[in-house]
Please model this.
Amino acid sequence: MNRSVFLLTHAVSTRTSALRAAALVALFLAVPWSDAEAIDSLVVGQGAGNLFGWRNVADWGSIDRVTVTYDSLFKWDVTAGDNLSAGVLRRGGRIFASYSVVEEDSLVEVVGSLPGLEYLVDSDGATAFDPDHAGETGVPRAVRIVVDLGASFSINRIRLHPRLDDAHRIRFPQQFVVGTSDADGVLNTNGGLTGPFTGISQLNFSSILPNAEPVVDRIFASREARYVMIGTEAVQPWELAEIEIYGDGTVPVGVFQSTPLPARNPFPVWGKVRYEGGDISNLPVVMQTRTGPDRTPILHYRFTGVGDDVTLVSSGVWGALPEEEKGPVQPNPEWSLWSTVSAGVIRSTALHPYVQFRLRFSEPGTIIRRLILEYAEPALVERLQAEVYPREVVPGQEQEFTLSVLSHMITNNRTVATGFRQLEVLTGASVRAIDRVLIDDVPVPYSASIRAGDGFTIFFGRRIDQDGTFVQVVFHAAVFRDATRFETRVSEQRIANGKLESVYQTAEAGDVDAEFPGGELVVRIAAGNELQVVDNVAPSTTVLTPNGDTFNDVTTIAFDLFKLTRPTRASVEIFDLGGRRLRWLINEDLPDGHHAAVWDGTDEAGLLVAPGSYLYRISLDGDSGTVTRQGVLGVIY
Model:
């Protein structure tokens, strides 16, 4: 629910600690930061120069089904029914052939281009490829033709034919098979054609069951493909004018991963992510980041030959080692885990100068030319740890939570930390109220803003800038999804380059309060509490008496939605016993949480229904079908 900003000026501490007790400091006005404390950025792609062009920063071993150029990163646009062959050359694809010839009494495979192959994808039915005329002496009629689409697509139809005039329409291939591959490459290290190709049963013609149609047009179940192979086994003359390959309008998920990239200063606070069109969250991509102190998020080890002893080597050296010398490959413990960017902000914790990012593309036509990763200096805190308690709850039941936060400000001579004025919690839990805020166990004045389905923000009356400051926020909330996260971050506003900018720093999970064991920011559903997607359905009354006496004039049908990862279409309807719908009470996308619909005994026209029995039905369109709950209501006068 939306709640207005409110101010609490007193609270009562539930526990005291002589070690952390501190006097309440009076409020004071914020002092603007100087431009020296600025927002900087790391730019990749268009305009970044050769050093940070997309191809220069690509971690090629972790890139799949996405097109990479120096100044752009994209998934090709496609609509259902597009002939993908027509764009092969434009996308950087190609068409080539493989066939065998006899040299010195042995068969040798030849792979490469042939005259006329380009006619197969030129959308011109009057031009054709004929193996008998492909070169001065021609090539064998048993040849494999491979169309490289230039990118991976989901295809569901292939159409091929010779020239269709009277002189050529009888020269169609009779014995051939068609297969597809979505592998990174279909050539082996010696340049030979290997595949693997997966055959299409509808396009498999042999000497026993030969093809008898000039135009072969087959629809099949959608499959991911970058390479389409037509392999002929013919001895009779044949030609093909066109190989048409049609997409179903979707593309497989593409992944781009960068190499570790450096910031210009040693202790950056990573913040917003933008692209040339604005906030990265506006694009249909999922972005993840991780940060570390050096260029090695993954550690490679070599066996020294002395027992189980190993030594650290580079990834290049490790790849060149004999198998018996290759040691373990492990994540670098000094690097953070992968964290998903949400609301356009990097969530990776710690003040690490290197960042690595990963992008997942799921929709055709998505393109990023320029990616900007902002960071600030100096840091708000050197280290921020937080935990939430309790860690297990009954789903949908409101209860008291305690968020504990410990800030470390200055613990060495290298880092300057400036402090923060706001603490923000991002969560899908339903937060009803903030009960109190304590700093070093002393209740303090604060204001708070609660955002329905998105968490809350605490505004302190002073800057928190003392090393070891211990903050606790006590609040009431209900959890509707297992593994609900309470992501915690602090923020401050700074003037950078003449503009007011918000700087965020995310907390890592840590056991900061001995009274609450665990040290986690995730709340689980307690064992034995099986969740139904629609549950806790409860009308305030099952009998309405809409006579205007304010007693049972309306009924409130309350219900909870659980386990939703995104808002989902839900409806609450009223029916008569004959199944005729009388009233829509709710018909909209709802998030998980507590909801309610009110019925006053009227139909869609606003007229009171006749006395009798009626049905209410709650429906939710889930991934596995529609989930419904229903019950009976009575109306009497």
In short: Confidence is low (pLDDT under 50) at residues 1-36. The first helix runs from residue 315 to 320.
